[in-house]
Fold this sequence. Notes:
Number of strands of chain A: 3
CATH class of chain B: Mainly Alpha
Structural class of chain A: mainly alpha
Strand content of chain A: under 5%
Order of helices and strands of chain B: HHHHHHHHHHHHHEEHEEH
Distance between the termini of chain A: 68 Å
Largest sheet of chain B: 2 strands, antiparallel
Shape of chain B: globular
Number of strands of chain B: 4
Largest interface: A-B, 47 and 40 residues
Number of domains of chain B: 1
Helix content of chain B: 40-55%
Strand order of the largest sheet of chain B: 1-2
Structural class of chain B: mainly alpha
Shape of chain A: globular
Oligomer: heterodimer
Number of helices of chain A: 17
Helix content of chain A: 55-70%
CATH topology of chain B: Glycosyltransferase
Amino acid sequence: MHEMRNIEMNLCYQTYDILTSHHRQEKILQVGPVESDGFLVVESDVESEFGGSIVEIALNKRTYLAIFKQAHDYWHDCRSQFKSIETQSTDKLWDLYKVTVSYLLTTNDHHYIVGIHENILTELYNRGEPILDTELEIISTLISSKMRKVNKNSLLWHLMKKLTTINGTVDEITIYRIFKSCQYHPCNYYASEFLIWLVRVRRLLGQDNELIEQLLVKSCRSDLSDVSLWITLKQYLQINNEVVISDYNVMVDDVNSKFKSHISHLVAKQHLEDHSHLISTQLNWLFTIKCQNETPYISLVDYTKELMIQQISKETQQLDKLDKSGVLYSDQIDYIRILTKVSRR
Amino acid sequence: MTLLSKKHIDYVVNLNSEMSKQSYEHWLSEHLRMNGLYWGIMTLVTLKSLDSLPRQSIIDFVLSCVDKRSGGFGAYPQHDGHILSTLSAVQILSILGALDELDKESVIKFTKNLQLPNGSFQGDSFGETDTRFVYTALSILSILEGLEEELVNKSLDYLKQCENFDGAYGMRPGAESHGAQVFTVIASFAICNRLDLVNDKLSSWLSERQVKNGGLNGRPEKLPDVCYSWWILSPLAILKKLKWIDLSKLEQFILDCQDDEGGVSDRKGNQTDVYHTCFSLTGLSIINDELYEGNKYDMDSIDPVYCMPYSATKTFKPWPYKS
């Protein structure tokens, strides 16, 4: 009986429309003190720090809760539709997809809904619907939003890996958005884990990581205390093919079975990448700014202990030129202590 | 500040009230209900007040979440089974002495089927993998006496791959070290009777998690959070290295995070929730046992491997099983 009811879906439609439009480098989605209900969209005249355009999308808490309620009501009243997606018409499937998208915006770590969302996604994909770009736009918007719990939802990051695998790559806008995610949510564990996975897979697939390297270095330098970014840099410098291949191939099996695709397994490949210039440049930069955080050094020291030891000796010689009772002297002692501690790890 | 036991008990009991079920928060967190129930029950167990909730209603709710198709438990009735809610369900039934009500073979089969060829476990058919899920699987199988040699060995091989340069562990191979992941790996090693696999560097990494105000963080440079009073303290307890941090300062930090109206928040003055209430008090129980021989606070002793009372875990059969 319930399923005969004409259930309101206007907010689910609006959510879908807003998340799939405005394919900009920076699409800043946030919940904030907006007076009017619905979504407020502001196109910025200012260029993003990466040189692209920016659009800001805001909604108030009332709208946010209303979206959740609408999705929740639909799901509860029409549960059987979600359990029989193979028999639903394609138009109906798109509606169900929009309901799950509204859930993804308003809940976090909802395993059940993410599973249903994936089932609908693969069903639409396997029916030949042009859904992959739409899905990438939605998920990359959510993971780079300013909504803390959505931004660090591990399920969405896992979905990003699947989409990257089926797509074979990610576009530049997505890469920029991942770094914005790191900026909005410092020490973003899942974003960094995704980045580590991405650079390693791209390396094995023979894709270049130039843009990622450039953005990674820039992001690391802008936050010396962001342990996740600096560890990502450490992992970027390390080649560990065996584990990456096994991990990626598990993903390939999953994607092939669900999307009925034929992506090949990765096989071991010899890689000779020389990162010595990148390492010495970063370490010398840390010396120049006299970085007092341990983490940046820790991420680099294993690759070049020698440079570190030379610097300790240089800084120690500087001590003789300083007044022993002054602040500069004690600062220098602290600095040498940090370098020494890290070099002894 | 003293321990506000009565307030915390009322706080948990009120979460189950009819009024709270009318709120948006109740429905927004529907997908966490089984975990939330476990956190509430563990809070009450730790405070020796499990009888504050109606036992049979809890058992009925848990059993209503069985996903007959998969054999696991969902977070809420009619949700698909997931390994996280399945562990919570098994833990709750075990604590209530109601494991006989469970179709053990179905749960064991569900859990074993989630292991992938590389030894990791996925949470459900969505395919997300994480050291959390390895621990969760091993814990379920240990409670239900369903461990097997091949499964254990593959799990251990995978967990070893998640070790980092600092001796700690991340959620997957190559992922940054994280306090909560360290708990899952060390407790897994303990379940599998393989604590010899722990890197000597780990205890230093764990002790470096204590910050100036006594609280513990989960990663370098991060703010302290009261939940790490469990995630960091329990591996130190398992490794018998509790003296490597200042427990008195941590005790004070935990007490400061209490709300006058009951419940505990991540840091002093923030919004309370049942997750932080559970893991702060279970951590405090470890301190109570270590510093005061269990006499300062009226708390039950909690097993650092299972995050369950010893009264329940003492019956678990240790691995390897004797034939």
